[in-house]
């Protein structure tokens, strides 16, 4: 019993305990009461009941906290069982019977609880204290002791040896020691029982207002100490791997450009900038007319990743969108690897080294490296493993309502990170569930009802949270109906066996380029050694249901990724693919089907984790050597080289020194020549460098075109924008007559153009001639660009 300044309560408490134990000597056998005085400054050490022959007093020279007193007292105990109780005896000593019964049933600790059915609370605490306690217990359950509703009730019975070990390992001196000790039991796998007790609040509690934040601090310390060194090392290695991948840009993000991102880096920095601007000025974050003027951009229909671009607003405003995007992508990739690692450790293998291998492939597979150039929504996938784990929890039927609610919240957040990755992950989960259910029908029969119920609950939670944003996306201004990617967006069968361009050892840019849409869409490229090793793993471990389900998921996703038409390599033979069944359906019609091969990355990673785990457990050195050698040879060719980067094109002084402000009046736009589009979007960088001070016609985004609102990349074309783009790329200009000048005046008026700006670029001489003919005036060279002031002329 810990005691601090308890001279008025200690005497009746000790008398009640010693009387009860004496009267029940036959029930309890030998016993003693240890009072651990925590440096009391009153008469606690002199109360009469301490003279009882079976009461022992331990003293501390100064007050250090309940935790120190409990550690001192338990260390001095000798009993087969150890009861800890507070000096106010809020739970009567007679409740010891209930706790003892729980230990007799095989538990190592019995926790008196005020929060489980059967508890009887005679006098309650103040409402505010009660609410704080509930909030604290919720946090404790989430961080340290899952499943225990009331960790802070002071009435607990332990097996003596286990108690002495747990308290000896404890380090906290404050109120958090209860959590620390129970966390020790939980990690050790020692069974705990939460037992309802009678309880009555006693006035004079030593818990003050400052003790609540102290307990939070203690929780953080417990959580930090509970981390395994191997887990910390794995996380650190993932971060190092991510920084190495982005090393060409990470250390100078504002001055370096990822070459293979094409125009996507400009686009994504603009997304972060416009989101930060919307948050700072309380604008609608789902729409803007800063580009695509005057029609604007439906930001929800473009993957602006509000789930991260909004939280990163302070970073964007303080350091700029280039730094924010670089930091977000680097940390996000490392977090994704850590999330897969956690899932694999929890669900697949226990050996940390095996889980590290599997998570490394899941997060740094060739498709992930390809998308790391330009698509943070396909790189920052840390929510996907969490969603998978929560769905698996539902199948147990243990806490369906709670897990369903959490799943709904997770899905809602993932929608604001990326809808297409969530769709692909859902396809992968359906494939896995179908395969596992076919192999383990007993599991499927037991799991489908709680899973369905949880999914319905999750949907009911998710839809209200995302409903308005989705309405805006599909029915709001500048929404569109699907977006086509041509009929060749599926993978070639050869791409599944070939190596990606950025593979350090075996990469071949020419081969990879011929088998993919572009450097950011190398969606397969797992290499024939990995495919061969995976096949060997499946054959060797075929008896396991998990292996069968992972194998089916991998093969099915790979076949789906071939697209609606599968062309047999080196022939003209084409067969319909299974993706044809979904290709024209809503949502699926916007998917680049080659990306379905990304589902293979975590599935293959788990197969490798199983193989490494099995090899490490083998006592046969030959099997061990061959297994680890095979995995090494499969992964070695896939190690990625750092992403290519180059010095960034400097923003013209006309923009950076603010000269543009004298040409573009309020309500007008600055018109780069040619207008920004998916092929040339450097003007978006100009705009972010000018802190979004001017608006742009044209742009790089997804928007509608035509009466049917078909999705296209960029703004709806106009005659003048097409003319300027064609001249830029061909160097050939058509004869400019009255009709072209009239059309140009109409387009300039539509764009509310204040000035035309031509930066040095290929064919800029021809462009200058065309602009002079369209406007009837010569351009002015200023700030490193040619400028046509449209207030003076046409």
Automatic annotation (TrEMBL):
UniProt subcellular location: Endoplasmic reticulum membrane
Domain of life, source organism: Bacteria
Keyword presence, Kinase: no
GO biological processes: protein N-linked glycosylation
Membrane topology type: Single-pass membrane protein
UniProt record similarity statement: Belongs to the glycosyltransferase 2 family.
Official protein name in the record: dolichyl-phosphate beta-glucosyltransferase
């Amino acid at each position: 019993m810990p005691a601090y300044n308890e001279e008025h309560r200690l005497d009746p408490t000790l008398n009640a305990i010693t009387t009860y134990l004496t009267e029940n000597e036959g029930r309890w056998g030998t016993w003693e009461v240890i009072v651990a005085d925590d440096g009391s400054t009153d008469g606690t050490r002199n109360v009469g009941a301490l003279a009882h022959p079976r009461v022992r007093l331990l003293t501390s020279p100064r007050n250090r906290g309940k935790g120190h007193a409990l550690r001192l007292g338990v260390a001095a105990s000798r009993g087969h069982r150890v009861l800890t109780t507070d000096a106010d005896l809020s739970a009567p000593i007679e409740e010891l019977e209930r706790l003892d019964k729980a230990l007799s049933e095989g538990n190592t600790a019995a926790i008196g609880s005020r929060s489980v059915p059967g508890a009887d609370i005679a006098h309650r605490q103040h409402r505010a204290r009660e609410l704080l306690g509930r909030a604290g217990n919720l946090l404790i359950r989430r961080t340290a002791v899952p499943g225990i509703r009331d960790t802070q009730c002071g009435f607990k019975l332990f097996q003596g040896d286990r108690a002495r070990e747990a308290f000896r390992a404890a380090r906290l001196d404050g109120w958090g020691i209860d959590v620390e000790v129970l966390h020790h039991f939980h990690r050790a796998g020692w069974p705990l029982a939460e037992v309802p007790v009678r309880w009555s609040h006693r006035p004079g509690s030593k818990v003050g207002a400052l003790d609540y934040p102290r307990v939070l601090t203690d929780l953080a310390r417990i959580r930090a100490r509970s981390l395994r060194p191997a887990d910390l090392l794995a996380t650190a290695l993932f971060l190092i791997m991510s920084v190495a991948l982005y090393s060409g840009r990470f250390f100078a993000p504002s001055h370096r450009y990822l070459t293979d991102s094409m125009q996507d880096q400009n686009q994504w920095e603009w997304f972060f900038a416009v989101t930060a601007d919307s948050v700072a000025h309380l604008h609608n974050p789902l729409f803007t007319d800063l580009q695509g003027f005057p029609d604007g951009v439906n930001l929800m229909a473009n993957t602006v990743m509000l789930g991260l671009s909004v939280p990163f607003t302070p970073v964007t405003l303080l350091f700029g969108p280039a730094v924010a995007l670089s930091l977000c992508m680097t940390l996000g990739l490392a977090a994704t690897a850590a999330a897969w690692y956690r899932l694999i450790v929890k669900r697949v293998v226990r050996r940390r080294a095996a889980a590290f291998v599997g998570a490394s492939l899941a997060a740094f597979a060739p498709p992930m490296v390809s998308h790391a150039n330009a698509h943070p929504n396909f790189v920052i996938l840390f929510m996907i493993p969490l969603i998978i784990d929560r769905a698996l929890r539902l199948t147990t039927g243990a806490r369906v309502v709670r897990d369903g609610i959490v799943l709904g919240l997770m899905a809602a957040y993932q929608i604001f990170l990326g809808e297409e990755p969530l769709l692909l992950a859902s396809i992968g989960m359906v494939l896995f569930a179908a395969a596992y259910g076919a192999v383990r029908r007993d599991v499927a029969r037991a799991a489908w009802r709680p899973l369905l119920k949880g999914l319905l609950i999750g949907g009911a939670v998710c839809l209200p949270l995302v409903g308005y944003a989705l309405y805006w996306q599909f029915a709001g201004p500048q929404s569109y109906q699907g977006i086509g990617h041509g009929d060749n967006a599926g993978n070639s069968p050869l791409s599944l066996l070939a190596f990606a361009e950025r593979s350090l050892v075996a990469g071949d840019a020419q081969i990879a380029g011929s088998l993919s849409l572009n450097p950011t869409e190398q969606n397969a490229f797992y290499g024939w050694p990995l495919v061969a090793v995976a096949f060997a793993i499946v054959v060797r471990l075929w008896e396991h249901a998990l292996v069968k389900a992972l194998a089916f998921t991998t093969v099915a996703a790979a076949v789906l990724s071939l697209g609606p038409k599968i062309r047999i390599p080196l022939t003209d033979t084409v067969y319909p693919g299974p993706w044809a069944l979904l290709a024209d359906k809503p949502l699926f019609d916007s998917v680049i089907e080659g990306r379905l091969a990304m589902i293979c990355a975590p599935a293959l990673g788990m197969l490798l984790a199983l193989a490494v785990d099995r090899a490490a457990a083998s006592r046969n050195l030959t099997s061990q050597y061959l297994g680890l050698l095979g995995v090494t040879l499969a992964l070695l060719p896939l190690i990625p080289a750092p992403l290519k980067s180059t010095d960034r094109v400097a923003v013209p002084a006309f923009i950076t020194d603010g000269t543009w402000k004298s040409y573009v009046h309020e309500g007008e736009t600055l018109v780069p020549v040619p207008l920004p589009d998916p092929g040339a979007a450097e003007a978006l960088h100009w705009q972010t460098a000018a802190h979004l001070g001017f608006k742009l016609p044209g742009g790089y985004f997804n928007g509608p075109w035509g009466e049917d609102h078909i999705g296209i990349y960029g703004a709806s074309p106009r005659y003048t924008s097409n003319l300027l783009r064609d001249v830029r790329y061909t160097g050939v200009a058509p004869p400019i007559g009255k009709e072209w000048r009239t059309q140009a005046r109409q387009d300039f008026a539509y764009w509310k153009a204040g000035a035309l700006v031509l930066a040095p670029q290929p064919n800029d001489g021809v462009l200058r001639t065309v602009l002079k003919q369209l406007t009837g005036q010569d351009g002015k060279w200023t700030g490193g660009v040619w400028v046509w002031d449209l207030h003076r002329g046409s």
